[in-house]
Design brief:
The chain is α+β, with helices and mostly antiparallel strands. The protein has one domain (about 1-105): Helix Hairpins. It is built from 5 helices and 4 strands. It has a 4-stranded mixed sheet with strand order 2-1-4-3. The chain binds zinc ion. Zinc ion binds next to loops.
């Protein structure tokens, strides 16, 4: 459930910085993100520009290299976390790509059960 928001946030980020989409194209994406998350994104964007989103790298914020706490690691499974040191939005690329893959091949029979 929360993963959808991370995905949407990345979608917004890519549209904005990689595709340089116009505001009217960003609006429908922004509409799908919660207000507190959007406020955070916007204020950090003013401060850091393109590096507002920081992928987790070796268990640390890739921008400031501060190790992410265990509590934050747990949250990363479902959402982005705010870096305690630099304030950027940290996401876990592995989880994000997992979500993207799931969406891409959402075959009904891919679920396995173990005994
Ligand atoms: Zn950081």
């Amino acid at each position: 459930m929360m993963k959808a928001e991370v995905r949407t946030l990345i979608e917004l980020y890519e549209a904005e910085f990689e595709n340089q989409a116009p505001d009217e194209a960003l609006e429908p994406i922004r509409a799908r993100i919660s207000d507190p998350m959007l406020a955070r994104y916007d204020s950090m964007k003013q401060r850091f520009g393109k590096s507002v989103m920081s992928p987790l790298q070796h268990g640390a914020c890739s921008a400031c290299h501060m190790q992410v706490s265990n509590a934050q690691r747990l949250k990363l499974a479902e959402n982005v976390v705010i870096c305690e040191t630099c304030g950027r939005l940290i996401y876990d690329p592995e989880i994000l790509y997992g979500v993207l893959m799931e969406e891409r091949n959402s075959k009904p029979q891919s679920k396995e059960s173990s005994q």
